[in-house]
Amino acid sequence: MTTTDTRLESGTSDLYLSMYRDMVRSRVLSDRMFALNRQGRAAFAVTGQGHEAAQVGSAYALTAGADWVLPYYRDVGVLVALGMKPYDILLGLFAKAGDPTSGGRQMPCHWSWPEMRVVTRSSVIAANLPHAAGIAYASKLLGRGEVTIVYFGEGATSEGDFHEAVNFAAIHQLPVVFFCENNGYAISESQEKQMAILHVADRARGYGIEGQTVDGNDALTVLQTTRWVIEECRRGLGPKLIEAKTYRYAPHTSSDDDRRYRTRAELEEWTRKDPIDRLRNRLLADGVLTPDADGAIRAAAQREIDEAVEAAERAPDPPDDDAFRYVFAEDA
Amino acid sequence: MALKTYIEAIRDALIEEMDRAPNMLVLGEDIQEGGVFRATDGMLERFGPQRVLDTPLAESSIVGVSIGMATNGCLPVAELQFADFAYPAFNQLISEAARWRYRSYNGWGCPMVVRIPYGAGIRGAMYHSQSIEAMLAHVPGLKVVMPSTPYDAKGMLKAAIRDPDPVIYLEHKRAYRMLKEELPDGDYTVPIGPARLRREGDDITVISYGLMAHECLQAAEELAAEGIDATVLDLRTLAPLDRDAIVAAARRTGKALIVHEDNLTGGFGGEIAAIIAEHAFDDLDAPVRRLATPDVPAMPFNGALEDFLLPSREKIADAMRDLAAY
To answer: Percentage of residues in chain A with pLDDT exceeding 70?
Structure first.
């Protein structure tokens, strides 16, 4: 496992502050989406509390709008970092007509955002990994310099599609980053029930590619590692696998009760390693952030989400006839 | 004009479309050496290994990477070697490709063709003989075509490649070298959707698709000599289905026989029969009949058993006589 203890690079304080702000916004938004479900205002929520360093840190390594992104349902932070407005994410939570991911058809956080090359996904775990390999094959065939990143949990690495996708990408040395957010649980199944190895990254060797395990709660390490991996992919040295070790603070979804399978002591232990606290302390120590500025960031995030919730909840539902649209292309 | 077999028609369509579209590629198992049925014979030399792509033996990702390629500006035509081996790819076809456009509210499209050889009668036994169309035609978001002639095979494959949505192209293995036809030189397409009346007659109506449509037409010619004049409707496309053509053909004679090689229960014939019952009931003079493979996990490798189970020209002719006499 690699960690970064270097000083913050000079001239990058704005970047780190921006990352920090997006991590805070992602957390506030995730907490709110869960609360809205508990209040009976949203039918379902799936969120990424605890994964913010892995998500925001890696997304900041991308060239937004050029690189292809295939997030999974926990990746609120990836989308926030790419610039999706909380209002738009909340339209998805409430399944409203203007939901940019699916027009209110998919469960929340089943992302799609063509303008940012965020590709639609289903609820079927790992099914989008072959898509990432295919997208990267097309990039190579058509001679384009873009890189593809696909996100998944460690549970996805048990699926056949994980194997088939990584193998295909490795055979053709495709510019694709397989980014595993390993939070130690596939719903209730702890990692030792899923695999007989300690590190998902070890799987990479079996395909003849490089895998790297990083501290997924350290945003700066994730950023640095992902940047390097993406550069390698751009130079034709892909694919690569990154395993970011982290922990989710919320249940799997709003329909799950994690108290049935996780001890509170374990949760407490990881809460002390909160990725947002960690980056904040680092930025405070380095004088990039002041307590006042931090308070302002948090207050602004709360305000932004408050306003977005109010507006999104009032947005219109899709009309009934809308259910028939886009089974096939309509101009065909 | 040139005399072409069914498989030559497929190959010509692939080559002509590859010439037209530099972003098109074909992929699958053993594709570079021509494929097990030689549909892609000679294409490696012409287009190179990047566009004539040998994949690992992994059907889910053959379809899965095709979806990704289609998403990023390519036109993939995947080959699944046998319909019997398509099931590992069903999640990618059903949960991914079919719902790609719908679930993204038209944000993404999936212009992909999956060619799948199907069907029995070649002593292929249980795992080289299956018909899988009913399962796929059940899924909204997939187009399913089953051409019965070399002319349609070429024209519908070209239409499928130019279609903005995923098309399942089912080609009968026994048709590959058995069916020959004079084809026009140069480019033409046959639209996905419309059925085609292969024969018009006033005594009975036979509705079929794929290679069985050919067998039905042969049986109808045989019966014409006996004074039974049949209408033969070749559906050509199962999804989207030409319901109007089914209703019109059934109404014309009031007696409808549906023939398919897939087994009976839950087969596509049930859907056709339901459409006739719903929309042509008042014009019927006989119960709708279905001729299909019986409900056993066919096909046996034993030739006599395979012949016993499979619908054939003789069995179709018998069923037609029976219906005409009703």
So the answer is: 96
